[in-house]
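pasting for the record
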Amino acid sequence: MSDDPRLLAKVATLYYKNQLSQHEIAQRLAISRQTAGRLLQRARDTGIVRVEIMSPVSYETEIECRLEEAFHLREAIVITPAAETEEAIKRGIGQAAADFLRRRLQDGDVLGIVSGSTTLYECVLQLKPMRLNQLRVVGLNGSVNRQTPLSVTENIIHRVAGTLNGQPIVLTAPAFVDRPEIKASLLGDSSLAPVLALARQARVALFGIGDFSENSSPYREGFVSGDTLRAIRARGGIGEICGHGYDLDGRLCAPEISERTIGIELAHLREIPLAVALAGGTRKADAIYGALRGKYCNVLITDAETARALLKQQQARHR
């Protein structure tokens, strides 16, 4: 049977627009089912049919697969922002993270949140209501900072819990303390220990990645002096998660901050089934790379330009 353009268009119309099965098309046109299938394939091959996958957020699926393979991730989500601005990148990542949670969260889950990330806050803004049963939303870091007694952390946890029909559980303690002995005392407190124990049971954890610079939360909050920041950077510190600093290989390198940080340890993030990092912008590429090398996340949501920079860095390392 020749490739009659009219017949190709007819078969394609019946299949894609009229929603007929190949069997129904075969009966209607007095051809075999195998012929109907071949004609549909030819309609695609010759351009009579063009398949477009439409999404409110543009994704780079090929790069996603490359990231998953290069860094052994459970999932990578790579967005193309509406504009190459920091705000657009954050909005795009936030939307993708909200969609991820809607797809991945289950009844009975413990969702852990490390607050302090403006990208994570974009995710919170774009969450759609869900009726999950017995969901607990727990803070993975302290909820009190020096700027306000009731911080963004607590507000975020309550907002997420309200949107997802979950129970909010806040780690009511400072994000950072002045001395290690204060941290030791707080961690033994009967009201905080159960929250941290629950945090370590999270099936899904959501957190941002900071670069070790004047933009990092410990520095902005005044818990890290300029001298300390420069010393950490001199020993290779490039990234920060939940107040813990690490170098390009993911090795912890800022004990003077970690020993004063109230929150989950990075080693515990490695044990969480879905440890989801939200971070983008090439300015943070080294910090994200260090987090991947340290295996602190097994899901990464980022933008296409940053993803390409990460792949380039990994390729250079393995030459």
